[in-house]
């Protein structure tokens, strides 16, 4: 009787090691860029201050001249992309994760990351204590120190985290492209509005983007690394 050769069973998968390593490598690169920019801002590096001043003076002239556009940008900056609006979007995502998915760990991770971002933002502002632009004819006003831009940093953190969570659910191509487009427009748009309104230097916005992206990369690293040791929420276990 002919016997078929026995094929040994495949070893169980240990989980994808690439995402934690990729996120950690990205976090290291973003940390280096963030530290470099923060150092240049704190040291008041003259070429950076000159570039900031040239761009800000140009955009301020445009903002004063085109009041209609400036009003529309104020609505976007103060209401649509305001940090409070972004945090409410994050809070809605937390509620959805708990209510519809019973994903308690993911919801806690999302809420804590957004809270840490707010603390880091205010701490860096207090430490650097950079003055905001001052104009004889301002079109808007803002409080606290300038670096980093809280609007840019908060939008980067919230959009980055939500995009990553959506990507893990393997959305359809149309949904994914729409989400990426909305996130990119929001993150880039809110940064440009802060410079147009004359309440931030361009390097403040770049600092907000860098620090926000750094926190997203660190959060993804934290989420993914203990993945094989973390208990799955009820209803999500393999059967």
From TrEMBL:
Keywords: Membrane, Transmembrane, Transmembrane helix. The chain crosses the membrane at residues 106-124, 144-166, 178-197, 209-226. PROSITE patterns: PROKAR_LIPOPROTEIN (PS51257). Residues 1-20 are annotated as: Disordered. InterPro entries: PAP2/HPO, PAP2/HPO_sf. This is Phosphatase PAP2 family protein. It comes from the Bacteria. Residues 107-220 form the Phosphatidic acid phosphatase type 2/haloperoxidase domain. It holds the Pfam family PAP2.
């Amino acid at each position: 009787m002919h016997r078929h050769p026995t094929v040994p069973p495949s070893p169980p998968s240990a989980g994808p090691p690439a995402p934690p390593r990729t996120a950690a490598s990205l976090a290291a690169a973003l940390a280096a860029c963030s530290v470099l920019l923060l150092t240049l801002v704190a040291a008041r590096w003259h070429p950076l201050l000159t570039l900031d001043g040239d761009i800000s003076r140009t955009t301020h002239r445009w903002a004063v001249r085109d009041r209609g556009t400036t009003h529309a940008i104020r609505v976007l900056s103060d209401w649509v992309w305001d940090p409070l609006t972004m945090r409410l979007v994050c809070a809605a995502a937390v509620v959805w994760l708990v209510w519809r998915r019973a994903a308690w760990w993911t919801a806690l991770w999302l809420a804590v990351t957004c809270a840490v971002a707010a603390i880091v933002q205010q701490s860096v502002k207090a430490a650097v204590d950079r003055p905001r632009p001052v104009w004889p004819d301002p079109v808007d006003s803002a409080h606290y120190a300038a670096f980093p831009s809280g609007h840019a940093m908060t939008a980067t953190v919230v959009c980055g985290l939500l995009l990553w969570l959506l990507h893990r659910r393997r959305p359809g191509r149309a949904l994914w492209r729409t989400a990426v487009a909305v996130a990119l427009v929001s993150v880039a748009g809110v940064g440009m509005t802060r410079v147009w309104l004359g309440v931030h230097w361009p390097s403040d916005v770049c600092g907000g983007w860098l620090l926000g992206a750094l926190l997203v990369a660190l959060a993804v690293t934290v989420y993914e690394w203990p993945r094989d040791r973390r208990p799955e929420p009820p209803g999500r276990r393999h059967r």
